[in-house]
């Protein structure tokens, strides 16, 4: 696992983040939304997926996992903040995808820290 964590494009946590972001971006295709809900999910989902891709390309970046956790929290609270809790499908999609993004980001944090410490002597 240690060797896999240091190689670009091989970390499963980061692939999960890309998939979760893509699901958030595309969720308006299968759930009822209004403009606010749709664009909130598209923007946050795209940011989650892009940060996951950045973490995949550069496995030594520790801040990427922290950004994932923050973006997941924003997606999780977005139904309340952007007032689309009345749209059941959009709300549940945000809550589930946001919660999973938080969990996956938190699980990837120790791996990213270990890779960063291992790469510190290579600068």
TrEMBL record:
<feature type="transmembrane region" description="Helical">
    <location>
        <begin position="37"/>
        <end position="54"/>
    </location>
</feature>
<protein>
    <submittedName>
        <fullName>SPW repeat protein</fullName>
    </submittedName>
</protein>
<dbReference type="InterPro" id="IPR005530">
    <property type="entry name" value="SPW"/>
</dbReference>
<keyword id="KW-0812">Transmembrane</keyword>
<feature type="transmembrane region" description="Helical">
    <location>
        <begin position="61"/>
        <end position="82"/>
    </location>
</feature>
<feature type="transmembrane region" description="Helical">
    <location>
        <begin position="94"/>
        <end position="115"/>
    </location>
</feature>
<keyword id="KW-1133">Transmembrane helix</keyword>
<dbReference type="Pfam" id="PF03779">
    <property type="entry name" value="SPW"/>
</dbReference>
<keyword id="KW-0472">Membrane</keyword>
<feature type="transmembrane region" description="Helical">
    <location>
        <begin position="12"/>
        <end position="31"/>
    </location>
</feature>
<feature type="domain" description="SPW repeat-containing integral membrane">
    <location>
        <begin position="13"/>
        <end position="106"/>
    </location>
</feature>
